[in-house]
Design brief:
Length: 321
């Protein structure tokens, strides 16, 4: 892969990067591997709802200083565990640099919502620091660093629509025609990704199918779903949406069923839990349909809020420097 990240030669004083959230239009989950991960057939879809990460040069010796604004800012850790801080540290370490940088996250992606907001900020920080420090790191190297940070981070660099194999980090871009209109209904309180994978394993054990990677076949992408994306056909895509973590998310958060039902009753073509949840995603016929579903969901009282958006959109990219 040789796509540039938008970085130009020479360091900059301030760099702002925009990065998308994702919905998984298919999330096929294989068995539990011995390393604690699950093999996936993960069809990522980047949407216009996103965060911005601004990187500014810090004084020598100041280290990584993190700030965050937005409705969920209080839920975002501002220490070294933040994925944006981890990304800056990783990139600096690889280049033998001191990570003296102020990172400001303008957060619009729901926290712990199954939309990969932390991963998005990690990807954005990689691109922002790369430009700030004038490194010009090739995309292939950024993708490898991203995979060290987390399974969802490489996709936030790539954007568009892509199939993630392995634990989700091995990406193949997918062909898509036109745009698809989505509604995202956020919930009060997040769900922990490891807890949802554990619940998926528990439900499989309870059903008697076994949960290890020797019991569960490695999932494959749905041919119908790939054709619907390539054809730009929202009705066909709605019929092919699938999430193997949905039963686990619903088991941990039964109230999500009412939200899914409310969006479907309001005319959504399809409804599913986004990734590990608890955000619910609804596919609409067009922009007007998405606005109507969002309004009905808000009126239903089954979610914290609901927002219409569109995709696919590109991955993390410099918007200002
Ligand atoms: C479920 C998905 C679907 O895209 O996204 P979210 O809903 O969290 O946004 C991802 O697989 C989340 O990826 P990400 O959030 O990057 O997870 P990681 O940091 O790599 O892993 C956190 C933990 O999740 C579990 N995990 C993650 C990925 C995977 N393929 N199998 C797993 O079992 C493991 O318990 C792991 O320790
Ligand atoms: N930049 C960040 N933004 C949000 N959460 C972060 C960030 N960095 C680390 N985290 C941690 O990651 C957890 C998962 O958050 P997030 O990535 O938003 O959700 P999900 O994994 O469901 O997509 C949060 O609860 C938080 O503790």
């Amino acid at each position: 892969m040789s796509r540039s990240t938008g970085a130009v030669a020479g360091p900059a004083a301030t760099v702002t990067v925009r990065v998308p959230a994702k919905v998984n239009v298919q999330l096929g989950v294989g068995g539990l591997r011995t390393d604690g991960f699950h093999d996936l057939a993960n069809v990522f879809f980047a949407v216009a709802l996103g965060d911005e990460v601004r990187a500014e040069a810090g004084a020598p010796g100041s280290g990584i200083v993190l700030t965050c604004e937005g409705p969920d800012a209080a839920l975002v850790p501002l220490d070294a565990t933040n994925l944006a801080a981890r990304a800056a540290q990783l990139l600096a370490d690889r280049h033998g640099l001191a990570p003296d940088v102020r990172l400001h996250i303008a957060k619009d992606i729901p926290v712990a919502g199954g939309m990969a907001g932390g991963s998005a900020d990690g990807a954005a920080a990689l691109v922002a620091c790369d430009a700030l420090w004038g490194l010009g790191t090739p995309m292939a190297d950024l993708l490898a660093l991203a995979a060290e940070l987390g399974s969802d981070v490489p996709f936030a660099l790539l954007g568009g629509v892509a199939l993630g194999r392995g634990r989700g980090e091995l990406l193949t871009p997918l062909e898509v025609s036109g745009s698809f209109h989505w509604v995202f209904a956020t919930a009060d309180g997040g769900l922990s990704t490891p807890a949802v994978f554990r619940e998926c394993d528990r439900l499989r054990e309870e059903a008697g199918t076994g949960s290890s990677d020797t019991d569960v076949p490695t999932p494959d992408p749905s041919a119908v779903l790939l054709a619907a994306l390539a054809d730009g056909d929202p009705v066909a895509l709605a019929g092919a949406l699938g999430n193997d973590l949905q039963a686990a998310a619903l088991s941990l958060r039964p109230a999500l069923a009412a939200c899914l039902a409310a969006g479907t009753e309001a005319g959504a073509l399809g409804a599913l839990v986004s990734g590990s949840g608890p955000t619910c995603a609804f596919l609409a016929k067009d922009e007007q349909g998405a606005q109507a579903v969002a309004a009905a969901l808000i009126a239903s009282g089954t979610c914290r809020t609901a927002r219409a958006t569109v995709g696919p959109v590109p991955g993390a990219a410099v918007v200002d420097r």
